[in-house]
Specification:
This protein has about 475 residues and is of the alpha/beta class. It contains 14 helices and 15 strands.
């Protein structure tokens, strides 16, 4: 079937196919009335502030229907041609959307043509990565090679770690927090208010008591508030999520200060730390003078995403924990002739191949060059925004540039910006060039001339989000 589609694509002149219809355009502004989600934020006076969150459009308005083939489709080939046309137009849409991708931390600069020969196999790494199962079409040898690489990066010996390649970053957090709960069944989960939503999802799923800790203006955890929260539960062990780059501001929690706070609060030997390093967990080791994320410190687990800085084309991640912690989770599975301590059963066996391929091609030096490029370009973007009178912030160890939220949802969707309240951000990844940043800044400057031309609408004050020093509203500039 795959071969026949390729033939059909060559025979049809699909380069001349018209763009997808308007109702298939991912940049379209929502016109159908989707019920808004209401999120309660605490104001400084402790009252609830009701803020409407702008949702994406209902995909049912543009979904592609699955229909039954006609009896003569195999003879006429009409269905093959129709599907080939749809896929060709979808590819054009992807090319267009990739050109305007700034708000989410995905490295789109990759070429995995060498792996196309393996796409015809159903590769499944079900069960424990270190113990083969009866299912022979797997990629465990690649998976364990990748895990060894990350264990070396975070300074944990081969005989001291356990881990696996997850299906996404959220699964890494779910697993890390689950290990913490198994080590300390009565533990309280602590996480900063700017932690990824999957951390609080884990608390709900596992029915864990959870304390949300305040943050500094930078987005990193406020260890004074953390100390105060710890004092409320001195009789219970602590399970802590430490952010190696928060979702919105790219802030890095001070791991050493978190450990010091725990020990000074009387929790020595009674805490488990999971480090959520979704994006910056792989970038920080290559930043000069950056604090180390290392298992030589009393941490329990680290997770990163494989589809972010590494540039894997499908969602995946890496979760590493101490071998001594995993026995409580691991179970023999006769059906597999293996053991399993993962969250999921079946696991994508192609993801390890992509990760292995990239790690071998780039190596430590290649990643270091890409990190330096991202940080340099992030500083360039912040400089251009502030020069244009747009309030912006860039944390010291980050490539996430936070700035005032655009006033036009169509512009926001075009550039695929992630927004929260009055702020938005651009995550500068290896595929983001200076030319693309210039195009973005030039367009937002032009748009601001429209948004604020009559003086009735003013640029938002973002001092409470990114600090007075970074805000350029009328009051603070």
């Amino acid at each position: 079937m795959a071969g026949s589609i390729d033939v059909m694509l060559r025979e049809l002149n699909l380069e001349s196919v018209e763009s997808l219809p308007d109702d298939f355009d991912p940049t379209a502004v929502i016109k159908d009335h989707v019920p808004p989600v209401i999120n309660g934020d605490k104001l400084g006076n402790g009252k609830e502030q009701v803020r409407e969150i702008v949702l994406g459009r209902n995909v049912h308005t543009s979904c592609l229907e699955v229909t039954e083939p006609d009896d003569d489709d195999e003879v006429t080939g009409e269905r093959e041609a129709q599907m080939a046309s749809v896929l060709a137009r979808y590819r054009k849409s992807l090319l267009e959307r990739t050109k305007h991708h700034l708000g989410y931390p995905y490295n789109l600069d990759f070429d995995y043509g060498a792996l196309s020969q393996l796409q015809h196999f159903s590769i499944n790494n079900l069960g424990d990565p270190f113990i083969e199962s009866n299912y022979g079409v797997h990629s465990r040898q690649f998976e364990v090679g990748v895990l060894d690489w990350f264990a070396r990066l975070w300074e944990l010996e081969k005989n001291e770690y356990w881990g696996y390649i997850t299906n996404c970053g959220t699964e890494g957090n779910l697993h890390g927090i689950l290990v913490g709960r198994e080590v300390f069944p009565e533990g309280i989960l602590y996480a900063s208010s700017e932690s990824h939503y999957s951390v609080f999802k884990a608390a709900r799923m596992y029915r864990m008591d959870c304390e949300k800790v305040n943050t500094l203006i930078s987005g990193e955890i406020d260890c004074e508030d953390f100390r105060a929260k710890l004092s409320l539960h001195k009789d219970k062990p602590a399970i802590i999520n430490v952010n190696i780059g928060t979702t919105v501001k790219g802030a890095v929690d001070d791991l050493d200060l978190v450990i010091k706070t725990l020990e000074e609060s009387g929790f020595t030997g009674r805490f488990y730390i999971h480090c959520d390093g979704a994006l910056f967990g792989l970038m920080m080791p290559f930043v000069k003078l950056a604090p180390k994320v290392s298992f030589k410190k009393p941490i329990g687990s680290v997770s990163v995403s494989g589809h972010k800085f590494v540039g894997c084309p499908m969602p995946c991640g890496v979760q590493i924990t101490r071998l001594e912690h995993i026995n409580a989770l691991s179970r023999n599975v006769e059906y597999l002739a293996s053991r399993d301590a993962t969250i999921m059963g079946s696991r994508n066996g192609h993801a390890p191949l992509f990760l292995w391929y990239t790690l071998n091609r780039k190596g430590y030096r290649g990643f270091q060059k890409e990190v330096q490029k991202c940080l340099r370009n992030a500083h360039y973007l912040r400089g251009r925004l502030t020069s244009a009178g747009i309030g912006a912030m860039l944390n010291e160890l980050s490539s996430t540039v936070v700035f005032e939220r655009p006033q036009d949802e169509e512009f926001t969707r075009k550039w695929q910006l992630a927004c929260q309240g009055n702020i938005a951000h651009v995550v500068v990844m290896p595929n983001i060039t200076i030319d693309k940043l210039d195009d973005f800044v030039n367009e937002i400057i032009e748009k601001r001339g429209v948004w604020y031309k009559d003086g009735k609408r003013k640029p938002p004050c973002v001092a409470s989000d990114i600090g007075q020093a970074n805000c350029l509203c009328e009051l603070h500039k």
